[in-house]
């Protein structure tokens, strides 16, 4: 990817990437869309990302690998499956000289979707109990 170009869409990012990785990036995008159909495509930190309530996953092309961010945790079987790809900070590095594990990427995104929903649910439950009593009463009346 040209260091001076700042993509504004995932289409731009893929178009500006080296030709050899474009089909891989398109397939990763398709797999993410399959696993997170309601997610919004964004560019964040100059990388393609998919956003639910928060960022689900970033992906980026590098010289010798595709990176997937943020670090994944919370499901032991998945953690074991991604261990061979773990980078120094928990990010994942999928080498371009090996078959891309699209099924693993899909599992990662499905977990991130569940985690994102759980986090949003916990936030709304917390905010409901920390609102002033008058606000909670008004909200309860509206539900009736």
Overall shape: it is globular
CATH fold title: Aspartate Aminotransferase, domain 1
Strand order of the largest sheet: 1-2-3-4-5
Mean pLDDT across residues = 89
User: In total, how many domains does the architecture comprise?
Assistant: 1
Q: What about the largest sheet?
A: 5 strands, antiparallel
CATH class: Alpha Beta
Order of helix and strand elements from N to C terminus: HHEEEEHEHH
Any idea what the radius of gyration is?
Answer: 19 Å
> From the coordinates shown, what is the CATH architecture?
Alpha-Beta Complex
Query: Could you give the distance between the termini?
Result: 55 Å
Question: Which residues form runs of ≥5 with pLDDT under 50?
Answer: none
Structural class: alpha+beta
What count of helical segments does DSSP give?
Answer: 5
What is the percent of helical residues?
A: 40-55%
The total strand number stands at 5
Strand content: 15-25%
In short:
It contains five helices and five strands, in the order ααββββαβαα.
Walkthrough of the structure:
This protein is α+β, with helices and mostly antiparallel strands and 144 residues long. It has a single domain (10-143), classed as Aspartate Aminotransferase, domain 1, CATH 3.90.1150. It is 47% helix and 18% strand. It is built from 5 helices and 5 strands; from the N terminus they run H-H-E-E-E-E-H-E-H-H. Strands 1-2-3-4-5 form a 5-stranded antiparallel beta sheet. A hairpin with a 3-residue loop joins strand 2 (47-51) and strand 3. Helix 2 (22-35) packs across helix 4. The mean pLDDT is 89.
